[in-house]
Amino acid sequence: MTRPMLKTMPLPYCKGCGHDLIAKHSAAALEKLGFYPLDVILVTDIGCHGIIDKCMNTHTVHGLHGRSGALGAGISFGLQAPGKKVVVFIGDGGATIGLQHIMEAARLNLDMSVVVHNNMLYGMTGGQTSGLTPQGFRTTTSFEGNPYAGYDICKMSHTAGATYVARVLGIGDISGDLAKVFGQKGFSLIEVMEICPSYGVKLNPGRKLAEVVKSAGRETGVWTGSREDFSHRQGKKSGDLLSEVSGIAKGSEHRLKNPLSIVISGSAGEGVQLAATLLAKASISSGLQVTQKGSYPVTVGVGFSTAELNLSPGPIHFHGIDTPDLAIITSEDGLNHNRKRIMAMQQGSLLIDSGLAVPETSARVIRRDFRSVGARNAAICAVLYFARQFGVLTEEILLHIMEQEGKAAKLPIEKIRQVIES
Amino acid sequence: MQEKTLQDLVLTDGSRLIIESLARSGADAFICYPITPANLLYLYGSQRMELMLAAPDEITTLQWMTGLAATGKLPVTATSFPGFALMLESINMAYMMELPMVIVLVQRLGPATGTATCGAQGDLLLLRGMISGGHPVPVLATSSFNDCWTLSARASEIAVRLRTPVVLLTSKEEVMTQKSFGLSSLEEIKPVSRPLYDKDDPYQSYKAGPKGVPDFLPVSQNVHQVRLNASTHDQQGNLQHSSEEALSNTRRLEHKVVQQMKDYLFYELDSQDGANSLVLACGITAAAAREAVGMMRRDGHRVSLLVPKTLLPVPQTYLEIIGLYSRVVIAEETMNNQLGELLFGSSRPAHIRFAGGLGKMISPREIIREVMS
Ligand SMILES: Cc1ncc(C[n+]2csc(CCOP(=O)(O)OP(=O)(O)O)c2C)c(N)n1
Ligand code: SF4
User: Fold this and answer.
1) Quick one: closest CA in B to A39, which residue?
2) Which of A284, A348, B152, B334 lies most in the core, judged by the most C-beta atoms within 10 Å?
3) Mutation choice for B interface testing from A5, A7, A61 by most B CBs within 10 A
């Protein structure tokens, strides 16, 4: 014998509240479908309908106002098991604030059923107008009637991709309608129309439910879709992120005595970050400790591109660079982004493309025609110049790293040689 | 060229270490909405975690995580202030429901959207007050690559053992910067065990176990009824207005975290004999503090260093250590000394000095200046 979904106790609603009907008929529908109570996870929203939990023999999850659509979705993602049923109870108020969650679950066609208790107003907080209140319907916050049309949650869910959507009047036996909803695989939603006796009936005397629903242009009915229901489709996974960063081969020893801070800057798309990474790896290969960070505008394809590197024979704790020991500038964008820093340099070196106007600085200025090897290679050319001329690490080690990373083949090596030997 | 592979030394970033550590320690779902500077965490999370879901916003993120946690998963997300702000109510929900999860909060410059690509440390006091009622959520702050590794695993462990959301606090410069790093220094990480309630007696979702933490059962099993509730509730998980049983359940939430976090007290104390000055810094500024202390010692000055890593609930140990020094410099990337306020409230003793600023990393020189002035 299957245990009943509902405990034998009076339900906690005001007399005549449609929520009572929905709770009882939902229980009957689930039983009719043969669900065992503990295969049902009832997710309830904040609102009058949500105080049903204690009357249920199912698992119950009582979250926040409007979020039960997403909370139920999270459970559905985690379950993905046949024979389980996630049911979400939500009000028209909850469906308003949590509209996106319902649309998202419908879009993904998640295996879950949502019961929208549309009593045409926020019951629990005193009868205010919701996003699903029909036009013309009176509430405590629109005594002359709601001036605006409400959302058609059925049409929206259906368009978003739900498998099964229904709208019914909350009168008589609706357990059959609910059973059809709960029996679906994929996302299903039913909007049960009711009028909250405590506020709605009082404020709209003489109006009948069917007439209100009809005059709002919300006909009852069923809308179906035939999409495949949700299944987890994950991309290729890594079993170990650490194994993806390769150890760096040890090459000939560096000749750096004190920490060296370097700023490399040019234009987006001109290989600045790549040049910095190659230099960083070559430095590690030479036995140095390294930090590297990049900065660029959020529109990554235009404007400056700056890389900051610290090289040190010992541990590096602080990696910030105020005024660098070496600035490598390969374009106008890079120069503009670092002009203040360069002007603040009291010592060190500025390695700058010869086409650029040199700002006032106390740094030793070295001008070379880095861009003559092609704008894309200018930063790499400048880094090779650094290796050749500064004696910190060897050019050979840098070239080796470039080869290893598959970056050497396309370089105009002869042209680069001419620049770095000059 | 003569070659010997340094198996060990790589160029990597804190994001990679955090995600790998979380995955190894048992996190199995990554739910995210894109935000700078948490982008690398998102990238790695999606590649590494068994299940990745792209949420349509950060409220959904937290709701999906909570739903997944109810089914027995250990979900993770990564965000920065704008996303975190949207998550707040839902974090309260997960806290009240007592469901485990890890939220990596990457600090950036505010207010509001502020500057997405600029680091900051301005979210600490928000974390202190994030739960309505002032109950503490465990917060661990990374201050090095090694911390990214070890504290991430501890965050998983705390989340599961204490059944609570845990915040792993970090900042832009910690998770976006590449550094040379020796992987062999990393401790081995094992998945945190997740014992389930296995008795025949009826299960009560919020009946406190020996350490104040209720036994867990997922909603995916069908032996016992599970009631999860984010409203004030009794031991069964049934809604209550303010019955004694329900209020004592709410009190338990705070006691549980305060008591159990004593086992998760992480800090770095580098004390020097005869030092009267103490530099105190966490997160990214701890790196500058280490550098500053090293520089001062090389110049013959005596100075100690305290790097708090367990930030919330606030360990009394820090106040005891601070009490031993006549000059204390707190360094932090804010203009208002949030760490100082967390420790001392709004009236800080006069010997507590501050090296801070907005929109830039605090440099070792700025810290030294405060220690020496
Ligand atoms: C974020 C948030 N905003 C507002 C509220 C206050 N609130 C509680 S119940 C409710 C309205 C419930 O109305 P509805 O969802 O239609 O359910 P009903 O009470 O009519 O069953 C509101 C607005 C809340 N709990 N949380
Ligand atoms: S206030 Fe309205 S919605 Fe709430 S229980 Fe009473 S009748 Fe039902």
Assistant:
1) B222
2) B152
3) A61
Q: Answer whether B220 sits within 8 Å of A79, measured CB to CB.
A: yes
Cβ atoms A140, A128 nearer than 8 A:
yes
> What confidence category does residue A2 fall into, taking pLDDT thresholds of 50, 70 and 90?
low
Any idea what the CATH number is for the domain that residue B282 is in? 3.40.50.920
Which of B220, B242, B264 marks a domain boundary?
A: B264
**Average pLDDT value for chain B:** 96
Q: Which atom of ligand 2 is nearest to the CA of A91?
A: 3
Tens digits of residue pLDDT in A65-81: 999 999 999 999 999 88
Query: How far is residue B192's CA from residue B206's CA, in Å, rounded to a whole number?
Result: 21
Note down the domain range covering B301: 267-372
Where does A40-152 have alpha helices with state H?
68-79, 92-97, 99-108
Record the tokens describing residue A146, joined without a space: 């709601």
Mean pLDDT of chain A: 96
Residue B98, Ramachandran bin (φ over 0: left; ψ between -120 and 50: alpha; else beta) = left
Ligand 2 and A119: CB distance under 6 A = yes
The pTM (predicted TM-score) of the whole model is: 0.97
Indicate if B127 and B251 belong to the same structural domain: yes
pLDDT tens column, A86-143: 999 999 999 999 999 999 999 999 999 999 999 999 999 999 999 999 999 999 999 9
The fold of the A260-420 domain, in CATH, is Pyruvate-ferredoxin Oxidoreductase; domain 3 (3.40.920)
Q: In this structure, what are the phi and psi dihedrals at residue B324, rounded to the nearest 5 degrees?
A: -85, -5
Nearest-by-CA chain B residue for A54 = B238
- Looking at chain A, the domain(s) classified CATH 3.40.50.970 span 18-224
Domain assignment present for residue B198? The answer is no
Q: Which residues in B lie closer than 8 A to residue A43 (C-beta atoms)?
A: 67
Question: What confidence category does residue A1 fall into, taking pLDDT thresholds of 50, 70 and 90?
Answer: very low
Chain B interface mutation, best of A39, A64, A284, highest count of B Cβ atoms under 10 Å: A64
**Residues 264-293 of chain A whose Cβ lies under 8 A from any Cβ of chain B:** 277, 280-281, 283-284, 288-293
* Helix (H), strand (E) at residue B5: strand B4-6
For ligand 1, residues with CB inside 6 Å are A 45-49, 65, 91-94, 117, 119, 122-125, 130
Burial class (CB in 10 A: 0-12, 13-18, 19+), A301: exposed
The verdict on a CB contact (< 8 Å) between A247 and B226 is no
Q: Which two tokens stand for residue A178?
A: 């609910």
pLDDT at residue B3 in the model: 42
